[in-house]
Amino acid sequence: MARRHDPERRQRIIDAAIRVVGEKGLAGLSHRSAAAEADVPLGSTTYHFKSLDELMVAALRQASEGFAKAVAANGALDDPGGDLAAGLARVLGDWLGGDRTGVELEYELYLAALRRPALRPVAAEWADDLAERLAHRTDPVTARALVALADGICLQVLLTGAPYDEGYAREVLGRVIPTGRG
């Protein structure tokens, strides 16, 4: 029997892994559960992803694109004359106000890096990208502090279920930016 060419199979497996984590949490993700969700043979998942960590890396990379898209779509961080704290607070609001399941999934994969070293470089990518974008508007140390604070605000909103307060975020982010830099 001839092999069927399926160029989308790898992507379907990644999408399936993200759905599995969204429905069952990280503990529910395995090659077998991803294969079942993607409706592909188990051998396909192990062909494309030699280890579960490789599959998680691909899923985290794809999931973290959600925040990058929110930043790019908003454009608030690109205005050199705009209020940097207000712009970042608005970006966080747009991201948290979107598909909450996607945000939760991204954080679940992000926090999995605590126990899975293979995920750490990918988990750091979003913070590095945001810090680099912010460093164009302020200094690198302040940019890193803003990323850490934004990350903490998002995590608190997700963990407590409290609504995102853009005014609060704008105020505390503004306190980190040196006068005349934001």
TrEMBL record:
Write out the entry's keywords from A to Z: DNA-binding
Transmembrane parts of this sequence: none
Query: Which ranges of the sequence are annotated as binding DNA?
Result: 30-49
| InterPro entries linked | Homeodomain-like_sf, HTH-type_TetR-like_transc_reg, HTH_TetR, Tet_transcr_reg_TetR-rel_C_sf, TetR_C_31
Gene3D superfamilies assigned = Tetracycline Repressor, domain 2
PROSITE patterns associated with the record: HTH_TETR_2
Give one Pfam family.
TetR_C_31
Q: What protein does this entry describe?
A: TetR family transcriptional regulator
Species for this entry:
Streptomyces doebereineriae
